[in-house]
Amino acid sequence: MQKKWLVILFSSLLYSTLALASSSIQPVISLSGGIAPLNTQNSDSFENTHNTFIYTPGSPPIPTIGGAFVGAEIGLPQWAIQTGVAFNYLWPFSVAGIHTVGNNPAAATAYNYHYKINSQQVMWETKLLADWQQHYHPYIVLDLGAGFNRSYNYSITTGESNPNTTLNYTDHNNTSFVYGGGFGLDVDVISHLRVGAGLRVFDLGPANVGSATWTPTINNPVTVAAPSLTHLYVTEVLVQVAYLF
């Protein structure tokens, strides 16, 4: 239901943009960069008749992010609307934590685990800017599109000399609908050039490593689900520079 209302809002804003557009239309390109701390991580537990696998994540990572936007700015009285295509790229970051194996807590083995995630998004972006004292442009922004999350290089370590057997997971790709929005301020520096800063909150979809096959007894393989982040919720703190032609 939430996604449905976001699509309706986004479509209405885009329709209003085209309906109210005057002859003042300028192509615009912008580059952005900053940090995107993860808001939440999942703790996973898998059980079978032979073992219990528990994954407890550590502190959320703080990836860096870069982005680009190509579109047009449509001038309106006291307002402007930018609309176009945005691409975001989160530099690969590690998810790490403690992984315990064993039905008996006293005999359980503790492992340190970690794997990497690479996340990219291609979105349609609409940005509504106000005109304040000619040079200042407070704005709100909405993004909808597709996200591509790759989880890879799962590995484990332990200091125990006789550990319980655990699993190694394969790499995995997730593709999903992503959405987000936020606010900020752009400032005219010179003619055609703006700099700004903003805050955005995104749901970048799920990210998980692939499943693993474990054989507790001969000729009895068991497929075990992978530890996962069901939603990559991030808060992006960005600086940006834009050029209007």
Q: In a nutshell, what does this entry contain?
A:
The chain is mainly β and 245 residues long. It is 8% helix and 64% strand.
What does this protein look like?
With 245 residues, the chain is mainly beta. It has one domain (2-32, 39-121, 136-189, 207-244). The protein has one helix at residues 2-20, and strands at residues 25-35, 44-47, 52-57, 64-76, 79-101, 109-130, 136-157, 172-190, 193-203, 207-208, 212-217, 220-224, 228-229, 233-244. It has an 8-stranded antiparallel barrel with strand order 1-4-5-6-7-8-9-14. The longest helix has 19 residues, at 2-20. The mean pLDDT is 85.
Layout: helices, strands, pairs:
Blueprint: H1 2-20, E1 25-35, E2 44-47, E3 52-57, E4 64-76, E5 79-101, E6 109-130, E7 136-157, E8 172-190, E9 193-203, E10 207-208, E11 212-217, E12 220-224, E13 228-229, E14 233-244
Antiparallel strand pairs: 1-4, 1-14, 2-3, 3-5, 4-5, 5-6, 6-7, 7-8, 8-9, 9-14, 10-13, 11-12
> What multimeric state do the chains show?
single chain
Strand content: over 45%
Whole-number average pLDDT? 85
Number of discrete domains: 1
Order of helices and strands: HEEEEEEEEEEEEEE
Q: Going across the major beta sheet, what is the strand order? A: 1-4-5-6-7-8-9-14
| Overall number of strands | 14
- Helix tally? 1
Supply the helix-strand structural class.
mainly beta
- Provide the gyration radius in Å: 23 Å
Distance between the termini: 39 Å
- Global shape: elongated
Which range best describes the helical content: under 10%, 10-25%, 25-40%, 40-55%, 55-70% or over 70%?
A: under 10%
Regions with little confidence, pLDDT below 50 for 5+ residues: none
What characterizes the major β-sheet?
A: 8 strands, antiparallel, barrel
